[in-house]
Write a structure and sequence with these properties.
mainly alpha; 32 helices; flat; DUF4220 domain-containing protein; DUF594; transmembrane helix; membrane
Amino acid sequence: MVQVIPAHIKDVWDEWNIRGIVILSLSIQTILIILAPLRKRTSNRFLALVLWLSYLLADWSANFVIGLIAKNQGKELKPDDPPQDQQLMALWAPFLLLHLGGPDTITAYSLEDNALWHRHFLGLALQALPGAYVVIQSLPNPLWVIILLLFIAGTLKYLERTIALYLASSDKFRGSMLEVPDSDPDETHRPRKDDSMPNNMQEYGRQIRPLRLEKPARDLAPLDILQFAFWFFNNFRSLMVNNIFSSDQREESREFFSKLTDEEALRILEMELGFIYEGLYTKVSVLHTWVGALTRTLALGSLLSAFCIFHYRTNKSHEFHGADIVITYTLFLVGIALDLVSLLMILPSDWTFAVISRINDDEVDSGSRIDPFLHWFLGFKKLRWKEQKCCDGKSKHEVLNTPFLIQRWAGSIKLFNFIAYSVKADIERIHDVKGRTRRLVWKAILHPFIYAINTFRKLFETIAIWHHDLQQYIRYVINMLSRKNPVTRCIIIFVEFWLMIPHFFTLIGNYITDFLGINDLLDEIILRRSVHSEPLTKELWVFIFTQLKSKLQRPDKERSKTKAGRKGWASDISELGMADTKRLVRYIADVDYDRSLMLWHIATELCYQEEASTKENCDDREFSKILSDYMMYLLIMQPKLMSEVAGIGKIRFRDTLAEAEKFYKRRHIENSSVKRASHEILSVRIEIHPRNVKGNESKSVLFEARALAKELNKMREENMWSVVSKVWMELLFHAACNCDATARMEQLSKGGELLVFVWLALAHLGLGGQLGSSATEMSETN
């Protein structure tokens, strides 16, 4: 019988399979503990891939090696095996239960994992049974005390994970809002000093709620920011699952946020979103309760006790393999070290500081003795801004430049520009924090490879275009020369064969992608090459928050209008401050949101390239450009987040892209600059509006956007960029109010999104859709 796998390879596998996978499981735990906290600070796809693979392999490796250990217990010993080696391997089984409990820094990779808490609870019992079977098979075992202690530690760690998943599940969030009925409406939101934490989510530690939610007359200190953020997190958790909240809550929150400065609001929002992230994706919500403190103390104490007994009271020199002793010590020491590292990560966290501090009710109260240290430490983690020149040096803006390891979110905005992508132009950055020199070096390194790839791609495209004509011509020549010169015929057939190779590989590639259904994935990968990040500027956030607060000046009845009560997706166009608004009504009113977004995106880019920057228009022009590219990125690259408003955005994008590429080919401007492409589009003379020519059947908006750009250019004397920037504010606010709740929370584990900040600010200002219908009707009646 032929052996597919050589005997010596099988022997190595039989000897090292358990040992190798145990070390693999421990390595995965180390990767998760160290790298998991980074994912809230960056959207790096490589980091996301590493964490995703590690998260999936963590459970698989632990389950697999427990099965191998169970199988090993019934195997006959080899002559050179120590007599009690199997008993030591039985000691590894509860270590795997510890690993299944997962690290403190990540309990769920995505929100779907929280919904599967039932499965993990069942897994606790199912994983304990194989472990118990392994121990029973190894009896009598002198290590039974150590194994028992490790079983206690592993069971408690697994229980912590299951509870954390349960508390972060959407059903628990929704159910918790109904646990305590409001028996006395006069006492709603007026807690006493000795009020305990609300019952929902079993109490993230001591409730820290002020006697009344009121902003002090002074600027908020770092500790004040933290405490108010934690208060909002505890009392507005229902926002995470799109629950409505009462008008009392709305008014309380609106009054407080309307008095905040722009940076104070940003700092509170980022801390509140940080609390939401920790509650959804980590064990912090469990560890800061008395149950969590008890289970962690018992688990760590059991682990330390087991190590001491193994080290001081076990005779290891003649009973076990030397490699197995080393592995066991590694499991103990690294396990203890990882637990301590996890605690060190949790102790200086915002959540810990919020639990141990308290809000001062008056200026005379100096707070607790630890408050000065908390002020200093939180001040060290505050937002950092860096001044940069922009608008060709005509202006300066402050960009967010917080050091990576103390960031609470990515602090950047991802941008995608349609015209730059369609014409295959280089990315133009407005604020280059990382430095132009560094990017030029990387570009010089990668340029030869990119040039070679583009050359081959163009060659294959040319061959594909001319292949049909060449094939007909070659067949004609073969027929003419086949009788006179057989050698020539063979040469021509040989050439035709080589010309067919690129076409053959193209057909095979298309067949594979169609069969696997990954065409959309490949398109997304290609699109992402044109996505780049811009740091958030203080001026842009001030503009956004100012526009939000300006909406509070409208009457309550107007603020409470539903989407159905509006003409189109936007507010009254007269609010945009234009002298003559009739020319632009057709691009906003009664227009699908995705169509309007693409129209204004292309028109904004055309105007941006046409009009140079000046000191007067710098801010509005830059805000319009950044928001335009950001909203285009959301529409095309974040379909789940924009699913409520995206409509047929992707179909419209593809049709517009196809029309743009045909136009560029006719004008011979492929692979040119954005400025030249914009100039060519604006130079087209159109007598009849494209929408009247093509009707509603056409999905392309390229030349309709050109008509909008022409209309906007007529308004240069009326502060055109002020109008355009306010239109983009309307587009942004509408998307924030209607973004998908699940995708919104998932963004917190991918570096965060500006849209999520805007959504939360809208909710706290009472401008979103989180107000009960009865309250809305009452406000309209009044």
